[in-house]
Design brief:
There is one protein chain. The protein contains no helices and eleven strands. By secondary structure, it is an all-beta fold. Strands 2, 4, 5, 6, 9, 10 and 11 form a seven-stranded mixed beta sheet that branches.
Length: 126
């Protein structure tokens, strides 16, 4: 069983930065690819960033590329640094974990992720 707890959301103005953190309660953190997803009202959930279990490869949605950075460390934490925030970044952000073996890859599709956090609200005002 994996428990994920997100933190760091809030209400900010456009242009500023925010850092989301996800703490994973799991013994074998490096057995999981990690992802950050978001869902805005009336929109489908989307993967904004994903990182492989060893941190060697990562993915970014086009809408956040160059502004967001995903990282993970040996303390069972995966972070999402969000710079130059825009009103369209407003959403509930979720951390997710997907078991993966063998390759140092990641997943973009949500159905590969077995564990989800409770979500943290990010609101960006113009």
């Amino acid at each position: 069983q994996v428990q994920l707890v997100e933190s760091g959301g809030g209400l900010v103005q456009a242009g500023v930065s925010l850092r989301l953190s996800c703490a994973a309660s799991v013994r074998t953190f490096n057995s999981y690819a990690m992802g950050w997803f978001r869902q805005a009202p009336g929109k489908e959930r989307e993967c904004v960033a994903a990182i492989s279990r060893n941190g060697g490869s990562s993915y970014y949605a086009d809408s956040v590329k160059g502004r967001f950075t995903i990282s993970r460390d040996a303390k069972n934490t995966v972070d999402l640094q969000m710079n130059s925030l825009k009103p369209e970044d407003t959403a509930v952000y979720y951390c997710a974990a997907a078991p993966i073996r063998g390759s140092d890859g990641y997943y973009i599709e949500g159905h590969y992720y077995d564990y989800w956090g409770q979500g943290t609200q990010v609101t960006v005002s113009s």
